[in-house]
Amino acid sequence: MKKRVVVGLSGGVDSSVAAYLLKEQGYEVIGMFMKNWHDDSVTISNECPWLDDSNDAMIVAQHLGIPFQAIDLSAEYKERIVDYMFAEYQAGRTPNPDVLCNREIKFDIFLQTALKLGADYVATGHYARRAEIIVDGKPVYRLLAGKDPNKDQSYFLCQLTQAQLAKALFPVGELLKPEVRAIAKKAGLATAEKKDSQGLCFIGKVHLPEFLQQRLEPKKGEVIEVPASAPAFQNGYAGDELVRLTQPYALSPEAGKVVGEHSGAHFYTIGQRRGLNLGGFEKPLFVIGTDTKRNVIYTGMGEDHPGLYRKGLFIPAPEVHWVRPDLGLAIGESKKYQARIRYRQPLEACTLHMRSEGLYVVFERPQRGVTPGQFAAWYEGEELIGSGVIS
Question: Is position 201 annotated as part of the catalytic site?
Answer without folding.
Answer: yes
